[in-house]
Known about the structure:
By secondary structure, the chain is an alpha+beta fold. The chain contains 10 helices and 25 strands. Strands 1, 2, 3, 9, 10, 11, 12, 13, 14, 15, 21, 24 and 25 form a 13-stranded antiparallel beta sheet that branches. Strands 4, 5, 6, 7, 8, 16, 17, 18, 19, 20, 22 and 23 form a 12-stranded antiparallel beta sheet that branches. The mean pLDDT is 92.
Amino acid sequence: MPYAVAAQPLVESLPFANGTAAWFERLRRLPQSMLLTSGTSSHPAARYDILVADPLFVLRTRNNVTTVTAADGTVVETSYEDPFAVLSRFCPLQPDSAQPELPFTAGVVAWFGYELLHGANRIEPHKADSLHLPDLLAGFYDWAIIVDHQLQRTSLVLSCADPQRAQLVRQQLATVPSPAADNPFRLQAPFKPEITRDEYLGRFQRIIDYIHAGDCYQVNLAQCFGAPCEGDSWHAFQQLQARANAPFAAFLQDGEHSVMSFSPERFLKVQNGEVITQPIKGTRPRSSDPDQDNSNRIELETSAKDRAENLMIVDLLRNDLGRICSVGSVSVENLFELQSFTNVHHLVSTIKGKLQNPADVFRLMAACFPGGSITGTPKLRAMQIINELETMPRSVYCGVIAWIDRSGNMDSNIAIRTLVRDGNHVHCWGGGGIVADSVGAEEYQETFDKISMLIDGFGNR
């Protein structure tokens, strides 16, 4: 069922000085409101914010069933197909529709939960099915607000086929929301890990045993933390992004469910057929003491173990890209680049490729999903071990948050440093890659280092 959008978007200027948050305040109570923000740091990706709401239709996948719903609530289709195939069928691409300096004119904004393809990979459903979020939530949007921090320009991009719909959007943006009752987000109790330190170390040892038995080379093991909460998730997101200034941050709302992601990691970017993926492997904590912070940075840059771990994932992703990209086009552009964020230093590598056809963007996502940096090698066996050992489904954590423009261009994150709210409970996860010479106590501490910004941001009380 094709959805009509205008052949060329109508672009109207909005006041840049209002700021991203003020514009999102006018949208966030509309259905499936989503904000993708790149922060204001010196990171190369820190340029665009994308704001969308009120999609023409929504795809939700849960338990291997994808339901497509129109804006009026009518169920258009129920499918057992590969969800990426459903998405590509409902979102036909127009390769000649790309606009200079506008990353998104119409298309998909979505979260893809880590377990989305477990059924296709014959991985059993997680034994603790305690989260109620869909494995895929995707909206097809025919308008957006684009904030360009580089050019200091805010644009309303209207690709609506129906002029009346475009006028309703303008009216929504012209209406200044009345001050809402103060409903700040707060934790009702501190975050608590789902497992004890001894339980984590037992699972760690199980992975080491699998490695020595030849089952795998690396497995990314995470532990989940949870806390009861109340108040407005949007307030929590603003509070934490002010600290994190993450280049691949996102706030997504769907009824009682919300996702607050402060990811430093790009998954896949496609620009005019050029593909980039930038896995993170290798971590050291930041320190308020400049000498200690520099020592941590140097230790990471010179760590043979972390470089080897990073290289394993680079090889995995070269293989993933090679399944879809043009023969001979996949190359490693940068190995072991050190990037520093609010609470950690990371090693980041860059792999590139070339698509033959813009429509291959959906096949590319399916071939590379979930990201190798948060699974391990070989990927399928690592995923099976993760499913065996972790006590909670990952949900959106370690999945992907993405925009896919109708031109075939896209950008996406690996949803690490991510909070998932389900009703009055909020979850976050910390994990790391385990290899043969990993030390259990160090890996356990790393799970805390990676989420310290999230937990400390609320005072953990």
